Amino acid sequence: MEQKLDFKLLAIVAGGLLFTFLFWMEKMALNLLLYSVFSGIALLLDKGIPKSRKLFTLGALHLLAGILVVYNQSVLTVFTWYISLAVFVGFAHAQLIRSVFTAIISFLMQLFTSPFNLIQRLINVRIGNFSLKPLAKPIKYVVLPILVLLLFTALYSNANEVFAQYLNQFTDGLSVFFTNIYNFFFADLSIERVIHLIIGLLFTAAILLGLKGNGFEALELKCKEQLVRNRKRNKNTFAHELADLFLGSFIKSKLALKTENIIGILCFAMLNLLLLFLNLIDLGTLWLNAQNASAAHYASELHDGTNILIFSIVLAMIVILYFFNGNLNFYHKNKTLKLLAFIWIVQNTFLVLSVGLRDYNYVLMYGLTYKRIGVAVFLMLCTAGLVTVYLKVAQRKTFFFLYKVNGMVWYALLFVCCFANWDVFIVEYNLKNQKASAIDVNHLTDLSDKTLPLLDQNRKLLYSALKDSEFWPFAIDTAVNNPAQTTQTEKLTEQQQAELAFNKRLDRRIADFKARYNRTTWLSWNYRDWQTHQYFH
């Protein structure tokens, strides 16, 4: 069906031009917020998108993500901006979607299909008597043959070296020919800028053009959050198919609820005993005998405990979902099974606390790092997972309930983490709470430019940590010297040289920051860089 030039196509062209203006050779900062404003207005002006409270809420959250990028520019805030955009756009075009993860998947599908959707929309455009449809018809007859030709050309070139040589000569000549034509007509036009413009057009098209007949809406409409007792056992579920794959003919024999209940009791009883043994070890070595534990012990236990926690939580969810996905939830003699499942959830919660205590003790000894903060965040996500698993069993919820609620928790926690200036927080904590001998100077100086004022203010404290920093890259290598013959004067000289190397590196970083800041325009403005620049200005 032919159509006139519509609002969406005009918005896509405007968005592509705005994209290349905002982001070409710029840092992601204020430009992201401006692009968010444009995207939000374009979606709200689209008459085909219903306006709802949830749409405005998700749009406001996306704007908040843009504001957080401007205020607290970091990899985390930029990542949150993209996630919030995916959630907002995914829901805008499919408002029957109820979960964060599905909205993100829906947007990714729009992103991958945006070239085809944009081409199809352009083909159907008619301006007066002009239409691209007559030109598009012959093109579609040659697209498939060309793709087949390219495929077999690549195969033959890999199979025959002589053919490959002739092919390289032909493609080189063809490349030179088109390059000369391009330089003749568009000598002052950057091909990289053209590609950047095309990327902007496709990205904007992914935002404004929804999927046709979005199947994710239909899929989620079939998903219920509350379990319902089925009088007739349904064997066409995903869980049954998965069990059939691994258990074979065993699962094909219909198990009575009594048999399933007994098997579940045995499984949870054995798993509880296994996890109880592990938790008793933690109770004796970590909780009741913490003063005798070494830093190396905490380091190895932290990583091992985290891996065990990941496996344990995933295993707990899989096992609980298997036994509590059907009519066993309504079996009147399942109280023992539920009790054992609750005990296992409690034991996993204790395991979360044990890993948290290891992380806390390790931070006290060696300070904060992103990995140790990441462990704490992961423990919060695990706790949320355990709570939702408990609710699933206690209130007879479905897997979709877990999928939906945990997605909301992850999304909310992502925003909460963006409010913290983590680099500065790490440096401040380590300088205030650690002895000089425990400060990892090399790690602190590898953090972002936001930490430069703090590093400059604490040069003397960092000097004192240089002599004990085994990983300081600018310290003088004394491996060739005999420590027993090294005089006190020579030690002082090495310390002075290490301090000089530290000052040179820090001063060079400050100079590089100033140069980068002066090269950027107002589109790359963000509060943290401005704050750092003001300190050194």
Strand order of the largest sheet: 1-2
Count of helical regions: 22
β-strand percent reads under 5%
Report the span from N to C terminus: 61 Å
Output mean pLDDT.
83
Proportion of residues in helical segments: over 70%
**Number of beta-strand segments:** 2
The coarse overall form would be globular
Question: In words, what does this structure look like?
Answer:
The chain has 537 residues and is mainly alpha-helical. 74% of the residues lie in helices and 1% in strands. The chain contains 22 helices and 2 strands. Strands 1-2 form a two-stranded antiparallel sheet. Helix 12 packs parallel to helix 14 and helix 13 (295-323) packs antiparallel against helix 14. It is globular, with a radius of gyration of 30 Å. Mean pLDDT is 83; it is low at 249-254, 468-472, 475-482 and 484-489.
